[in-house]
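EI: anyone free to look at a 399-residue chain?
SC: sure, send it
EI:
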Amino acid sequence: MTQLGCVSPYVPYEGIDHAGGEYLLRYLDEVHKAGWEIALICPENLENIEAGPKSPEWLKVILSPDERHVGKLLRLWRLFRTGLISTPSWKWWDRIDDGVLAALSSSTVIDLQWSQSILLAPSIRLRYPNKPIVGTAHDIMTQSVERARSGSRFKTRARARLAHRAVKHGEFAAMNACDLLYVFKLEDRASLLDQGVSADVRTTPPFTTQTSAAPAPDPKSQLIVFTGAFWRSENSESAQWFMQRVWPEVARRCPAARVRFAGSRPPDWLMSIASERVEVTGYLPVLTDAYRGAAMVIAPLVRGAGIKFKVVQAIALGYPIVGTSVAAEGIGSLVGREAVDIHDDPIDFAEAIVATLQNLDARIGQSQSIMNIARDRLDFSHLIQKQIQDYNKLTTGRP
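SC: here you go
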């Protein structure tokens, strides 16, 4: 029997409200279909306790004790020491119980999802020196923190400056304890190798929904869509940048234009500006419902790291996209830079939206052509098989 022991901050389930969780669910499903048993190890927090019963039957979920409350001073100290506000991986590891250790001990390969799990790699390597360890860095923490240091909000900048030193030193050392490290962008692979990461760094495909049942772009519509988990600060800040610096010009020049913010847990400020022309959906159990009746997609991201699943998803569905350079990272090597109309200046961003809405037939035709070309490059079920083969090779010759 081959078993994957997967350590993750989140328990995935159908309808999970963020793209990383959706990726994890589809990835684990493909590993399971390849004949592996899956043991998923997560912190025992309220979110994961509620998610456990909704996870697939084939997924063995093991929750490990987590802290219930952390005071402000301790949070600040941890931020400085580890770069994390939540329970640091090393602290969580100290609290791991016998059930988790038994699951890791019986696993053929140990899989660490997200950077906070990858931070466990040195401790796991010490306990299980002969176990293959793989990690998937959904975001490069060092890159995220460096960008956040120049963010628009004081709180964001202050946290990033406190965390920068710990993240920079800790993340790369943890990555080097992995046998294989996966990232979503070729650019991230090159950057990590340039900065001294000695692990074998490879790329993994992003997950996208490709279905004929998904709504197609509507050339008669003037609806603009921005999708995201708005409880994440980078999405909330980006929505604020768009509403303050881009939307007024678009609204003035395109009287029929409307914007939809589609995603879970929107902050109070975003809910408060909902109107006839500004729609805030909240959680949508079916991802593709976000695009219903839409003409185009925007990705006005002002910070963040890693490939943006929301952008790849819009490409897979054939929508015209206007985005920032942050939003378009990794897209060029995946499907071509022409898939996203890139603008960082708010005036240019607004101009690009107006130009798209005024010439929808041509822009949708271009996007549909890109979708057809990119289809094979976004075939997740096919592409992820290479990664599963990597796992099989890792186990060959191991004691």
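EI: The chain has two domains: 3-207+379-395, 223-378.
SC: 👍
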